[in-house]
């Protein structure tokens, strides 16, 4: 009889901090402002996060080697052109669909995900983020209770 090995879910528990941002700024502007305030070095990833054919989320990343942390800033909204087969006057017009990375938080514009092994001072980080004039609000999100937590693991 062959031995069956199972990997526990707790075996690979990725620890990360998730911060929600509300802002009307485009992604490149918010990254510039965050880089300036936090002295970070976010850069656009070469490829977007694609969850399906019609869902692609642009993101920016930064590997902080001094603190051994990996930072991601990702848009919560994706608007992609869809081709629908229709009859009538507007049959050749494309339609646009809006999708959310974390549907439980549709009102959030961006998420900052920080992968780390040690403790992080979230209160200080939120205070620094709120000094950016066009960030309306920023707050921590408990990623363990999200139904769409797997969308944040990539």
Summarize the SSE layout with pairings.
Blueprint (H helix, E strand, L loop, with lengths): L15 E8 L3 H12 L4 E2 L4 E4 L2 E3 L1 E6 L4 E7 L1 E6 L12 E6 L9 E6 L6 H8 L5 E7 L13
Plain-language structure description:
With 154 residues, this protein is mainly β. The chain has one domain (15-152): TATA-Binding Protein (2-Layer Sandwich). Helix content is 13%, strand content 36%. The protein has helices at 27-38, 122-129, and strands spanning 16-23, 43-44, 49-52, 55-57, 59-64, 69-75, 77-82, 95-100, 110-115, 135-141. It has a six-stranded antiparallel β-sheet, covered by helices on one side. The protein is globular and about 60 Å long. Residues 7-12 have low confidence and may be disordered.
Q: Determine the N-to-C terminus distance.
A: 36 Å
CATH topology: TATA-Binding Protein
Helix count equals 2
The secondary-structure element order is: EHEEEEEEEEHE
What's the gist of this structure?
This protein has 154 residues and is mostly beta strands. It has helices at residues 27-38, 122-129; strands at 16-23, 43-44, 49-52, 55-57, 59-64, 69-75, 77-82, 95-100, 110-115, 135-141.
């Amino acid at each position: 009889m062959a031995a069956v090995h199972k990997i526990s879910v707790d075996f690979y528990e990725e620890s990360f901090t998730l911060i929600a941002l509300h802002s009307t700024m485009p992604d490149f502007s918010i990254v510039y402002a965050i880089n300036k305030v936090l002295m970070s070095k976010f850069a656009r990833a070469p490829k977007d996060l694609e969850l399906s054919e019609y869902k692609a989320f642009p993101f920016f990343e930064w590997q902080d080697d001094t603190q051994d942390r990996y930072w991601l800033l990702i848009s919560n909204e994706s608007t992609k052109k869809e081709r629908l087969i229709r009859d009538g006057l507007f049959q050749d017009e494309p339609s646009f669909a809006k999708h959310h990375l974390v549907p439980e938080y549709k009102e959030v514009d961006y998420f900052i995900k920080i992968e780390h092994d040690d403790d992080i001072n979230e209160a200080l980080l939120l205070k620094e983020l709120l000094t950016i004039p066009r960030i309306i609000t920023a707050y921590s999100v408990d990623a363990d209770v999200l139904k769409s937590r797997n969308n944040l693991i990539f």
